[in-house]
Amino acid sequence: MIGKGVLKGMWVTLLEFIGTYPLGRWVLRVLGVQGTSGLVTIQYPDAKQQHPERFRYFPFLVYDDTPDNLRCVACKICEQECPPKCIFIEPARDEQGRPLKVHGRPFPKTFDIDTSICMQCRICVDVCPFDAIEMDKVYEMASAGRDEEMLYNKDQLLKSNEYFKGIRPVEAAGVDARLAAKAKKVASPAAGDTPSPAGTVPARSPAATAPNPPAA
Length: 216
Hints:
Elements: H1 4-18, H2 22-31, E1 59-63, H3 77-81, E2 87-91, E3 101-102, E4 105-106, E5 108-114, H4 123-127, E6 133-135, E7 151-152, H5 154-157, E8 158-160, H6 161-167, H7 169-187, H8 206-209
Parallel strand pairs: 1-8
Antiparallel strand pairs: 1-6, 2-5, 3-4, 5-7
């Protein structure tokens, strides 16, 4: 049916409008229609809207325990995949150009996000193989300028994993479980790599110890 989606949308809008008023909510209850919260005005900034967990704004960098323990390894995947090209990463290197490491991982010397052109698409989060970047909920970031004030550096982007758990508990639990599984897989020894105790000879299989059959 042509226009069915439009009619559904208009019906939802009508229910929201009617549910705005006490009499309208009473009518909806009498008719047995699923009620709504209505079009409620929030007295901002004295009162602030409570956003759902999946509400997203600008990205931030996640670290574990201490700020120097970043999950980011400066692989630049997010920089390459970013549609508006608002991410700028420079890996930390020594004088010979070799990557510097902290906690056994490379890390970025520079990690900037130009929030004036970021479109909050979340692609950087989806492509990151290390779960090092997540989406924040902070939206009060207005500035009088559009240049340096909106360019956030690594220090400004760093936030702890505990903060991530606080704003997105369900998603953070899934990320922690995934990272724990990866760590367990890396830590577990590969099959057959366990060394034999000193002074012992590995047991031979029955096929290897069986005597050769006599010649015919």
